[in-house]
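Technical appendix A lists one of the benchmark inputs used to test multi-chain prediction within the project. The record comprises two sequence entries:
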Amino acid sequence: MMKVPEHQVAGHKAKEGVLGPLVDERGRFYKPLQNEDRGSTEVWFYSSLSSHRNKENENEIPLAFFPAFHGTKEVEASDCSGLHPHLVLEDLLHGYAKPSVMDVKIGSRTWNLRDSEDYINKCLAKDRDSSTIPLGFRISGVKDSLSSWEPSRKSLQTLSAHGVVSILNKFVSSDASTDSLPDCAFASQVFGPVLDRLLQLKAWFEVQTLYHFYSCSLLLVYEKEDVDRESKVLVKLVDFAHVVPGNGAIDHNFLGGLCSFIKFLKDALHH
Amino acid sequence: MMKVPEHQVAGHKAKEGVLGPLVDERGRFYKPLQNEDRGSTEVWFYSSLSSHRNKENENEIPLAFFPAFHGTKEVEASDCSGLHPHLVLEDLLHGYAKPSVMDVKIGSRTWNLRDSEDYINKCLAKDRDSSTIPLGFRISGVKDSLSSWEPSRKSLQTLSAHGVVSILNKFVSSDASTDSLPDCAFASQVFGPVLDRLLQLKAWFEVQTLYHFYSCSLLLVYEKEDVDRESKVLVKLVDFAHVVPGNGAIDHNFLGGLCSFIKFLKDALHH
């Protein structure tokens, strides 16, 4: 019953003998636990989310921004290497017919002080060569499954501010795949609700000192098949393999990048 | 008539044959143009501030946050090396009898992509070893000229979140120099107005795409001699030797650090 997710735009894909995520028909997303500390970090993070559930203070976690977590489970790995432990999560794309999907890695620094020197150097080089340092985020993947528009990941990484504006405009246009000017037909239907959600997320990041999110992505989804009837806008955070405790400070790195992305969205909504 | 500023807490000091800033009795601050591109960058920045003065849009610059600029002038250098070009600025400490002063370098990254590899590596090492990366800012200097409290710059650089709370509490206490618990007697008188100003500054940084400010400091001053009568709270930005054009993005690095500092101030004000 397990299959490869149809609309994954970033991260390792489970194909051609590669270990990657799987989904079932009941709306669950199975993400293989990554090696080194990443797998255990993500399990720790999802587990701690539930344990904080009842805290009533400024750190109270807006759980609606996170995929539901259903523990871990050994399942047959996508690379046919046998049983492998997986996180069992909510399949965020379940129920969408023709989703438009965007994955935005937030923050101008994708590494933290706990990481190894090798990992820091690798991330820093990539951050410097991508839009991560200039813009405070990078678009890791985007797809319009109705018009089959899916720019290469490589072309997305080095986007200038101008390039980001163009991708955002296409993302909310009737036909993203054409070379003609994007009509931005769904800008208010999509970016309106997205912006509302992101301002709520921002308000939390201005006060929460529980976690710092490195290399974490914002996932934006809407239903393109019948967008005028129901756009089903979804805004979630995904990928928590590099989350660390906040140690008394807000996550200024994520917050700065989020504010930068919000500014682009506001401009896309109002022009 | 020129003399060494009495209450400078960060940056090069003009003493013992070192080139540093001077002040005159009329309230002007003479800052030597630094070598390499720094001096010319700062002249460019101050000049461009005035040229943007009449723009009525989201980039409209809140000029009250910047020292007034009176051009450049050749004056006798403090290291007795002869005439040297200086920026002529407003002396922000002019008119204070017993000022309490804090200099906070904002941002979790003090370098930018235009900098040389050597400079980037030097900054990155210092950012990693200081509170810059964990907290998104570092306190470069602090002084209470009434009680002669002035922690060493070195001790300030590596402050944890807990250490910052302690410095902030002392900064607004009757006698910062004692080892006893700070009384935080002036917390609301000082941090109240500071917070109001910083929230205005934050609102600008959420939209402005003119400049990115690296290695720039927030200068906080209040009059301690007769604080109950008039606290004369001052909030300014200083040091623009590493400002670069924004290129269509907000300054997410400065904004993130500013939000982090604001969170500490809010906590210091409300506890």
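The mean pLDDT of chain A is 93. The first strand of chain A starts at residue 22 and ends at 23. Comparable benchmark entries are summarised in Table A2.
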